[in-house]
Write a structure and sequence with these properties.
Elements (H helix, E strand, L loop, with lengths): L4 H25 L12 H15 L1 H25 L19 E5 L8 H19 L6 E5 L3 H10 L9 E3 L13 E4 L15 E5 L10 H8 L3 E3 L3 H4 E2 L8 H14 L2 H8 L7 E2 H56 L3
Parallel strand pairs: 1-2, 1-5, 2-3, 4-5, 4-6
Antiparallel strand pairs: 7-8
């Protein structure tokens, strides 16, 4: 080998050595069976495929969510347009005429309720606030003796209550800032029945959700404080399957409805829930008299049918006697024959 060919030979051998080294490295990097390589199961393969599909469809899902939001927005807009004709209970604020009647929810029974009932009271107060805000004749709404568990629950679950409008939320008792002669406590235990609402008065609703555990408490409190008391004229217009004790928001809404219609019966039947089984008292009386008449008619029918049955028995009796006589005569003739 000549000296000229020697560098070319050395270079080619170096290239071959490098190629062989790279091949060895590739082989060493590839996993071998039996050297830590575990084949993928069908379940794992399915999971990998699903994950891949989920990632691929991410943009599609995003687009679908956008379309859904747009569709809901359009539906809400259409609903608002359809309700703009005034048939809905939400009314245009420019038609509102504020009433001078003061309606107070007395929250001084905080210590008598468990947390579950406090939460129910909070929801009923929210309902009263919402209904008063959209009423045609909103009242002067007061929330008194506000504190304790109720305030804590409102702070935790309804922080926006501090921004409520058209409501007076006070920690004091109502007797501290309203004259006694202006107060009328609404309680179902009172013997006095309201005939109409005096808008110069302040009507108090007991803020107590007790499931009938403290019967007559609001009536006793009103009597002890020398405050006038009365009950809504429910019994004059409505016959109910359940007891006459109503939820706080129902009493509140009935008063709002009466201020608008000046008709107790319409107010009761607009607000009372169907589960109360309320029917007008005149229909209830008609129903009871109808039941009595039907009972009398049924008794008359029963007596008539019994008389007919007796007559039928009397008519059938001679025929049976004749048959019996014939049978007896036949037996006698058979027995009298010679054997």
């Amino acid at each position: 080998m000549t000296s000229e060919m020697l560098p070319a030979f050395i270079e080619s051998s170096n290239v071959e050595r490098k190629q062989s080294l790279s091949e060895d490295q590739e082989k060493s990097q590839k996993p071998r069976l039996g050297e830590g390589f575990e084949p993928i199961s069908k379940r794992q393969m399915k999971k990998l495929i699903k994950q891949k599909q989920w990632e691929e469809q991410r943009e599609l899902r995003k687009q679908k969510r956008k379309e859904k939001r747009k569709r809901k927005q359009l539906e809400r807009q259409c609903q608002l347009e359809s309700n703009s004709d005034g048939n809905d209970r939400k009314r245009i604020r420019r038609d509102v005429v504020h009433s001078t009647l003061r309606l107070i929810i007395d929250c001084s029974f905080d210590s008598l309720m468990v947390l579950k009932d406090i939460k129910k009271l909070h929801k009923q107060i929210q309902r009263c606030y919402a209904e008063n805000r959209r009423a045609l004749h909103p009242v002067q709404f007061y929330l008194t003796s506000h504190g304790g568990q109720l305030k804590k629950n409102m702070d935790e679950n309804d922080k926006g209550w501090v921004n409520w409008k058209d409501i007076y939320i006070k920690p004091e008792h109502y007797s501290e800032f309203i004259k006694k002669e202006d107060l009328i406590y609404l309680t179902s235990d009172s013997p006095n029945v309201l005939k109409e609402l005096d808008e110069s008065k302040a009507y108090v609703i007991g803020g107590l959700v007790d499931h009938n555990h403290h019967k007559g408490l609001t009536y006793k409190q009103a009597s002890d404080h020398g405050i006038d008391h009365a009950q809504l004229p429910l019994g004059n217009f409505v016959k109910m399957n359940s007891r006459k004790v109503l939820a706080i928001n129902h009493v509140f809404e009935i008063i709002l409805e009466y201020l608008e219609t000046r008709d107790w019966q319409e107010a009761f039947f607009t607000i009372l829930p169907q589960r109360k089984g309320a029917v007008p008292t005149d229909k209830a009386c008609e129903g009871s008299s109808h039941d009595k008449k039907s009972a009398r008619v049924e008794d008359g029918l029963d007596s008539d049918s019994s008389e007919e049955e007796n007559n039928r028995n009397e008519l059938e009796l001679p025929h049976e006697e004749e048959k019996q006589d014939k049978e007896n005569s036949n037996e006698s003739t058979v027995n009298s024959r010679p054997h």
